[in-house]
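Task: fold both queries, return tokens.
Query 1:
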Amino acid sequence: MGSDRLRLACFTAASFGVLGVHVPFWPGWLESRGLSAVEIGELGMVYMCTRGVASPTWAHFVDRSGRRKLWLVAFTLAALVCFAPFAWAHEYPALLALTVLFGVAHAPVLPLGENLLVLQARERGIDYGRTRLWGSVAFMGASLGAGIVLDDGAWSRTWWLVMVVLALSAVSALCLPADPVRPRPRAVGVPLAELLSDRRALAVLAGGGIVQSAHAMYYMFSTLHWEQSGHSTQLIGAFWAEAVVAETLFFAFARQLGGRGSERVLMVLAVLAGAVRWSVLASTSAVVPVAAAQLLHAFTFAAAHLAVVRHLQHAVPERLSASAQSLYGALNIGAHALVLSGITPLYASSGAAAYWPMIAVGAVGGALAIWGMGGRATEWRG
């Protein structure tokens, strides 16, 4: 692995390691502070909405400057500083304020990191899938490790675990390769305006985000549901890790799945796999069916994500690339927030039945993205 690819892989791993602890186990930490399922869902929606607004806003300045490493260092350090006060927050208003603050600081980290990978894949032939898979490996390792550490119900340790991986993310950002020397990007008034002028491109980004939002129930409430079903946090961590193993294998061999033109096939697979996965998780919490359903994460998440990334690689110029990646992330997050607002009351009253609407969400998003992929790529100027 080349030096630059190694540095990118390390940053990707550290960034997704944050998610590997925060996504599965933060709801449990919030519950340990006395919050109800509805309040946890509300904080999740606020966090997603904050990220959805902050990410494309920051991306405007990143695209105008072209200095991606500098911005990533700033964002990762800010996220570490903003997360620290959670240790002393117990009341809902304080938790809400800190959730907004952390969302603003951390929102651009993942989309900007993805943007760097896409640019490297385009310019230097670095295999996107085989570099991105280290993020999946780190997510798996973090969720497994956190499940073991938290297995005795000591949810207070979650804060420490998140702080450690946030610190690793900041250090790895400092070690990223320097930005290539290029002429300063020509000023664009509002990069998003140029992106939004293409209906088909917008359909791909929005549709991809909606497909990903079908994971809202899984991301926010699966840990709580499985714990209430009698599973240990160690087994729950294994469920999460298993899904990421499947995702990792998918990315490792993604290059063999076809190049340009394969996006629609990948998206169809994602929608069909979602129909099966959410049906199983809605119907049972038994170990064997859940373990089998988790393997489908390779398609419900990874195939859908790769379809959108491949579209961005050939459809969007570098001067708009951070904005495009952030718009995809923002639409993803916004769709998650909307879906979560609808299913939170359903989960509070009916538990795993909240998985059933996810099938329809995935189908709608997939249809929109597939329509957008069917047209010609925009002939961008400049």
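Query 1 returned. Query 2:
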Amino acid sequence: MEIKILLIIIGVVFLGIISMFNSLIRLKNHVKNSWSGIDVQLKRRNDLIPNLVNVVKGYATHEKETLENIVKLRNLSMNQTNLKDIAKTQDQLSSSLKSLFAVSENYPNLKANQNFMELQSELSKTENQIAASRRIYNENVTYFNNKIETFPSNIIAKMFSFKQADFFEATKEEKKEVNISF
């Protein structure tokens, strides 16, 4: 009788370990999946940028520095793999695109150009989708990291070397306040 009780207890503990391990794997895969959502939107933005730059080049030949910076950041972002580097470069790229759209205010013909307006609209939509994807990713990272840190799953996480995932955080540049004066 004692052996049966002991076997039942061992079986329940073993099933609990399996359940926690599977839960950690599911959460880890949610984090990976949500990162791929961000990656898709970043690639979409990177695909739109050359078209935008080509349209602007025809109108704003003396804004060469702004255009070169955007192209440089786009190319850099396509070759990065580290999450923190990607986040930093993408934030710089967003800032440069805002500068480009501000420069376009000086060119009425450019602002009226249908291709420019469509590209600007698509980039705006993509920026919104990137922001939404970042929120989803960070939410999944929170769930995963909480599971790794809370008892008793933290024991299983340590046993199987689960590591916390990094958040996709805004850089200092992105957190700066914008002052508008009239």
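Both queries returned. Flag for query 2: DSSP finds seven helices and no strands in the chain.
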